[in-house]
Design brief:
Blueprint lengths: L1 H5 L5 H8 L7 H8 L19
Length: 53
């Protein structure tokens, strides 16, 4: 997420809401903690954003 945010491809909303806010609800966080692969373009809500490359 940080990579896409720094490139201007991602709205700050995602970082503020999930990464800095309610990170336990972040699907990316849950997968990382469980050791489950997730693609880089997976949004914190679990949706794959095909526009992020």
């Amino acid at each position: 997420m940080k990579f896409f945010l720094e490139q201007g491809k991602l709205d700050r909303y995602w970082v503020d809401k999930y990464c800095q806010g309610n990170w336990e609800k972040c699907v990316r966080y849950q997968k990382e903690e469980a050791g489950i692969y997730h693609p880089d373009n997976m949004m914190p809500n679990g949706i794959i954003n095909v526009n992020l490359k």
